[in-house]
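A.,

Following up on our hallway conversation. Structure tokens first:
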């Protein structure tokens, strides 16, 4: 028995780079597709929000003098590109998939419609949400929480390259210690970085738990769904 029936998986755009400096690594896409297939085979309903940082990040563009709204729209388009790439990899693994976008790109993706998204999930299709929230000034973290609430997901799974939340950046501080469980209030009090503040607060207000885990370790996604103590769980 799986602990979670419907999940929202949040992936960063950088995760798709693999060992590259930019762009998309087909090998990494195939690995993710296999991980996702393991849980769909168990009947878990899967929705995905993916970032665009491997192609373009709106905040970075704005910091270099670009108009913020224009830069964020470019970032939204980058998430659609990543969504198409992930959709292709999932379908290569024989996983039925739908890509929905918060911005209109009707030739390549459906518009986001809540009831249609839920119906796809009920039919066993993986739904990828592209285009962020469709609004500038909001990150894909915010999009992930928003979509998770809209589809009534049981949990947000944030797949990263580290195995949870630490007292400090474990890649920079060898003395950093990992939390197996932490409350929303403790995250805020300790100043830990899980998601941007808007996304994190929205998750807290809607009592939607977040699990941060290492997506790059084979089998971890299935272990998380099964309820094994993988990563760090953030809850009330």
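Then the amino acids I'd put at each of the 236 positions:
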């Amino acid at each position: 028995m799986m602990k979670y029936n419907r999940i929202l998986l949040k992936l960063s755009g950088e995760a798709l780079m693999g060992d590259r400096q930019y762009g998309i690594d087909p090998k990494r896409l195939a690995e993710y597709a296999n991980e996702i297939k393991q849980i769909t085979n168990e009947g878990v309903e899967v929705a995905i929000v993916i970032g665009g940082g491997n192609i373009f990040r709106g905040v970075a563009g704005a910091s270099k003098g670009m108009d913020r709204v224009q830069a964020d729209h470019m970032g939204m388009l980058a998430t659609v590109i990543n969504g198409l790439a992930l959709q292709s990899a999932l379908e290569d693994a024989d996983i039925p998939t739908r890509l929905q976008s918060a911005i209109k790109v009707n030739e390549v993706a459906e518009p986001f419609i809540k009831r249609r998204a839920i119906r796809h999930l009920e039919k066993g299709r993986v739904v990828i949400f592209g285009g962020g929230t469709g609004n500038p000034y909001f990150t894909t973290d915010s999009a992930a929480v928003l979509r998770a609430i809209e589809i009534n997901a049981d949990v947000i799974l944030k797949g990263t390259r580290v195995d949870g939340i630490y007292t400090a950046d474990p890649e920079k501080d060898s003395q950093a210690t990992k939390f197996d469980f932490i409350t929303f209030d403790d995250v805020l009090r300790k100043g830990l970085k899980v998601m941007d503040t808007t996304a994190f607060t929205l998750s807290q207000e809607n009592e939607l738990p977040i699990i941060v885990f290492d997506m790059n370790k084979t089998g971890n996604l299935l272990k998380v769904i099964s309820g094994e103590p993988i990563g760090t769980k953030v809850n009330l």
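The longest strand covers residues 6-11. Curious whether your intuition agrees with the design.

B.
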